[in-house]
Each structure stands twice: as structure tokens, then as C-alpha cells.
Amino acid sequence: MAEASGEGGASDAGARAGDRTAALTSFFRDHPRLRTLAVAGPPYAVLLLFFAIPLLAMLVVSFQTGEIGGPWTLRNYMDFLGSSTYLTVVWKTLVISVQVTFIVAVIGYALAYSIVRFSRRTTLLLLLVILPFWTSYIIRMYAWINILQSDGVLDSTLNMLGLPAVSLLYSDPAVLIGFTYVWLPLAVLPFYASLTNLDGDLIEASKDLGAGPVRTFLSVTLPMTINGVVTGVILVFIPTFGSFITPRLLGGTNNIMIGMVIENQFKSAFNWPFGAAIGMVISVVVVALLVLGTRLGGGLFATGGEEA
Amino acid sequence: MSAADGLTRPVERFVQAYASRMAAAVIALVIAFLWVPIAVLVFMSFADGGVLSFPPDQLTLRWYRVFLSNDAALDAIVTTLTISVPATAISVVLSTAIAYAVDRYVFPGRSWLQLLATLPIIVPLVVTGVAMVLFFKGALGLPGYVSVVVAHVVRTIPFATLVILPTLLTFDRGLEEASKDLGADELQTFRQVTLPNIFPGIVAGGLLAFTLSFNEFVFTYFVKGSGDPTLPVYIWNQIRYNVTPEVNVISVVFLVLAVTMVLVAVSLTRVELLARR
């Protein structure tokens, strides 16, 4: 405060700097819109220029042919949607994504429920669940290569127990295990949050009315926490649908997912407009799911603040 | 109704009797599922024969020595840091501005700003990565290094904002009122009252942004040209083309770093906030 008023023993330079600060702050106080712009403008500009506009640019490029800046065409979309090979890949991606989402939802909900209802050391347990999540995705996949490869940790352990080896690496189950492993912590948190917010009196009331634990779960707990379930399901389904790392590292040659096709167009085939078109198709699927999820009551943006 | 009751009653009774034991089993099994692969990785980093022999005949520090004398891996760490450190700094400043603007000001486009700050989590990484490489290279002609830093900023903003915003929402606004009543203007109040109060949240957001950026693969993989690989890209190449036991060691280094950062972040803020990625 002394520096702003520039009194006392402040040097001339300090006083001048103080005057400038004072002038600046009073200017912004008199111009609240400019003040808001000065705070919100830079992040707004960064997110628009480097996130939103690139997505729009991808839309534009997806209607060009051969190379960027080529003539306008629908060919990329026709090639993609008219090819049974690609549609099979989309179908397979959908099937894997649904399987992963279902497995993660069941295990994740069981875990969140167990922690909320039956454990007192919730912070420690939550920490144990989310810590693996903050380690590198690639490294978590690599850990599973160590385990699943033929003569890896799993096979050797089975051998020691006198059981036959399974050599799961490069198979469908390996991909499911990998996805389940990486997304489980992601789903547990929204499940956990909605279960903690559930009013315990409702459960007591249900029990007082004679319902057993299963009936109470099915008619009170699950319906009352459906928002958290939908949020978790969306958070798992979307990244699985677009993933290429897990199927590339753990899946076999038959395990082609749509994210791998995009990666291929950009990294090997160098057909960027075609890759952009597939990216748009994925985006359409994702947006459709988000709209559906919001209809079902998932609060994906609710965590961002009080704004509706 | 009563027939159904007759059928479900034994199930209800069973669940009633064993519920807490079933819950304990679920917790133990899932946490083992989450941690056994990490334990295996750490253990195998000491295995003499490398990745292909389990159980290892002998434990050794050999691969740690190999790692420490591997210039390519150490260069990759330096490359990663030259991207992550500036990206984290920029991301934290922008995220604090977003949190402050969204919490304190009412302006047209406020909910759009919130949506823009959340969407990078939701749009599939491969889609955003592809969009970025198209636009950064094709339209803007940005150099590779700048592209990657910018991509990391976009990637980390949502997470830093999600951690910083609640600390801003929950701290006692009365302190700011008091400061203003005593004659301080908004900037002084922010610097001397608000900032010190939300600082733990900002540090936690920064640590998470750094962890995320240090681990970031997809954006880097697409946006970065043929230049020096970051550590995750280096590991990706190793895994895809020539697995050496050294990758186990690098993974352990990664793990220790990430776990330390997250534990510090958790000590500064609530564990639930670190959930979303």
C-alpha cells in the first residue's frame, strides 16, 4: 500500500512505479469490462486459437482431397463410410468400448460402494486407487506386456502352480485387461462422489420399510447415484473409443481399432484429409454420446464450478 | 410379490451376513489388480536376465547403470523437461486467470470459457492431436518446439483449473472484503490476500499439470516433428521396436517421480480433486 501511494522514504523511481500501478488499477476499476478482458482474455484466446479452431480446421481439411488445400470433396467420407473394412473396424471398436465400459463400471462401482459403505480409511484407499492413474499411460501398458507376454510373469506363475501357460499378449483379453487397468481409477471417482452425496436417511428409510440390502441397493442406491454412473461411463467410453496405444501395444494384428486407423493415416499413409475425416466421424459419435449422457443426467461439466 | 420375496429372502440374508466381508474382498482384489503390475515393473528392473526371464535368477543394479550411461534416454529426459517446465508455468497462469474470471466476474461468454476449459478432457486425444498437427503445421507454421509446448498447455489447463477453481470458491471471501474496506484495490487484494490463500491449490494444480505434461504422449506424438523424442515417445519407440530391460528402469524413475508429485499435491488439496484426467 505504501508503494502505491508513494509516500515516506520511497525513492522517485519507486514512486513513479507506484503511480503507474495506481493509475492502472484505477483505470481498470473504472473500466470493469476491460478488467474482465485482461483476466479472461488470454486464456480464452489460447483455448480458441489452439484448441477450438484446430478442431474446426480439421472439419475443413476433412472435405479436401489428397492433400491439404486440395479441391472440395465428399470423397473421404464416402471412402470411409462405403468401405466394409472400415465399418467393421468401427463396429469392432464399438464392441470393445462397450465391453470395457461395462467391466469398468461394474468393478469400479463395486469398489466405490465398498469403500463408501464399509471402510473408514477412505482417503488412503482413494489415494491407492488414483495413484496408478497419474503414472504414465505407456508405462502402465508396458507393465502389462511384462506380465502377459508368453513366458512372462503370468505364464511363469501358472507354470509354477502346475497350470498351463495362457500367453495372453496380442489377444482380445489382453486389450480388455489393459483398458480396464487404465480406466478403472477414472471411473471410481465419479461413482465415489455420487455415493458419498447420497443421503444415508434414504437407505435407513428403505430398511425400516422392510427392504433387504439387495432390494435397497436396486431401488434406492443405484437410481439415486445414476448421475455418477453416467459420468463415469462417459469418461471411460470416450477415451476407449479413440484409443490407439492399448490395442497397438497389447492387441494382436486382428485387434484393429479406429484410433489406430487414424494414427496410421497420419504416421504411415500420410493421407491427412482422410485421417481428418475419420477424426470427424469419431467426434460425431462422441458428441452424440455426450448429448445422450446429459439427457440421462450425467453431470460432466458440473465439476467445473457452480455455473449451469 | 410374496413369491418373489420368498425367492429373494435367502439372497438378502446372505448379503446381509457377508456384506462387509465381500466389500473387504472387493477392495483387496481391486487394489491388488492396480498395484501388482507396478510391483512387477519395479521388481523386474532389478532382474539380471531382463524382461524375458521370470522369475529372475539374480537381482542386479546393472540396468540402472546402463540407464545412467545411456545418453539417448538422458537426453529424452532433458527434452521432456524443456517442454514440461514452460508448459506448466504457462498453464498455471492461464488456469488461475480462468478460475478467477469464472468465479469473480459475470461476463458474456463466461460459460463458454468454462466449456472450452473442460472440453480438452472430453474430446478424444487422438482427435485433438490430429487437429493440432493439421492447424499448427498447416495453417500457423509453428516450429515443432512451440507446437508441443502449446499442445501441453492445452492438455493441462483443464486439470489445473479443476484443482485451482475449488480453492478459490471455498476460501473466506470476507478476507477480501476486509482488505477492500481497508482501502486496498482489487490488484493489491489479489496479490496480498487472495493469492496467498489459494496458493496451495495453485501449487497442487501446477504439480499435476507438470506430472501430466511429463507423461503426455498422444499430443506430443502427433504434434512433434522428427526432433528429439520426449521420454514417453522414447519409451514408445523402445517398446515397439527393441525392448531392453532398461525400459523397466526408466519406468521406475517415472513412477517414483509421478507418485512423489501426486502425494505432494494431495497433501496440499483434497484427494477427490485429482480424480479427473
From TrEMBL, chain A:
Query: One GO CC annotation, please?
Result: plasma membrane
Its membrane topology: Multi-pass membrane protein
ABC transmembrane type-1 domain: residues covered = 90-293
Q: Where in the cell is it found?
A: Cell membrane
Q: Where are the transmembrane segments?
A: 44-66, 86-112, 124-145, 174-195, 216-238, 270-292
Q: Main location per UniProt?
A: membrane
Name of this protein: ABC transporter permease
The organism's taxonomy opens as: Archaea, Methanobacteriati, Methanobacteriota, Stenosarchaea group, Halobacteria
From TrEMBL, chain B:
The subcellular localization recorded is: Cell membrane
Instruction: Give TM regions.
Output: 23-47, 76-100, 112-136, 142-165, 198-223, 249-268
**What cellular-component terms does GO give this entry?**
plasma membrane
A Pfam family of this chain = BPD_transp_1
Which keywords has UniProt assigned to this entry?
Cell membrane, Membrane, Transmembrane, Transmembrane helix, Transport
Coiled-coil regions, chain positions: none
Membrane topology per the entry is: Multi-pass membrane protein
Q: Does the keyword Membrane apply?
A: yes
Concerning InterPro entries, the annotation shows: Bact_Polyamine_Transport, MetI-like, MetI-like_sf
CDD domains reported in the protein's UniProt record: TM_PBP2
Give the ABC transmembrane type-1 domain ranges. 77-265
Q: What PROSITE patterns does UniProt report for this protein, alphabetically?
A: ABC_TM1
Location, primary (coarse class): membrane
Is Cell membrane a UniProt keyword of this protein?
yes
Superkingdom of origin = Archaea
- Write out the similarity annotation: Belongs to the binding-protein-dependent transport system permease family. CysTW subfamily.
Q: What is this protein called?
A: ABC transporter permease
Which organism is this entry from? Halobaculum marinum
